[in-house]
Amino acid sequence: MEIKQLLIFQTAAKELNFTRTAQMLGYAQSSITANITALETELGVQLFERLGKRVILTEAGRNLQNYADRILDLTMEASAIIGNNSEPSGILTICASETHCTYRLPAILKDFQEKYPKVELIFRPAVYEKEILSLISEGQIDVALLSMKTLTSDSLIVKELKEETMALICSTTNPLGDQKSIRSEDLSGQQLLLTEACDYRTAFEEMLLKIGVETKRRLELGDIEAIKQCVMADLGVAMIPEVVVRKEIQEGRIRKLDWEGNDLDIVIQMFWHKNKWISPALKAFIDVAHEHIQSV
Questions:
Q1: Which of 36, 122, 222, 227 would bridge 93 by S-S if both were Cys, CB 3.0 to 4.6 A apart?
Q2: Structure pTM?
Q3: Which domain holds residue 177?
Q4: Which Pfam families does this UniProt record tie to the protein (predicted)?
């Protein structure tokens, strides 16, 4: 069992796609298949089920994945400490919610890659916050950036960066924009434009429900950009992170309402597994992301 084989297996187990694994690691696909086959032969078990073009982990594969993660982490740690190789290098798998992906992550990644060119960043897409946290717990991603209510966890390290400023927004023609301040009851009769499941949507809905505010109707949209366009088309109001609409507010295309309701207490946080070794690459990413988010 070689380190190269374990690295190939680890990547394939995360991606469940040999073609993508080959592209990520810079090998020919035949080399990926040959190394996986050699590992299966040595261990005497099947690690993947081949279902046409799809592959899935077998029970033996899932068991090996845990050992492979630990072995490769220890290998990197030994190399960095014993070899005194403190310059960040290796592979770092990251994940983030939509707001961060679109409005914060590009600047963070650009700065990080300029400072640490030896680190290969892999972005793992996900749909919901809970799914992202599960991926961390399962060791499929190294670090995640999310905006949500403060979380405490027995299995995760949670680093709070700063409060996420939220904005209640409407179109430039919505009568709410003429009011000096907006209370919760002023939203009665307004259509709410909502994201898919996330903490700030849940907090907003729970707050309105608690004080008995009945809204006219609700429209769930797939992404933040769709919500912005619907707000500008005067289809309703939305409560979303201010960073998403800062430019449109400054340009006068969307109005930010003076909200007198309760704060949603949404915090920008980074997460990683408590048993994860803080490699130079991981520490560097945490520091760069922290610096960027604190500066704006």
A1: 122
A2: 0.72
A3: 166-265
A4: HTH_1 (PF00126), LysR_substrate (PF03466)
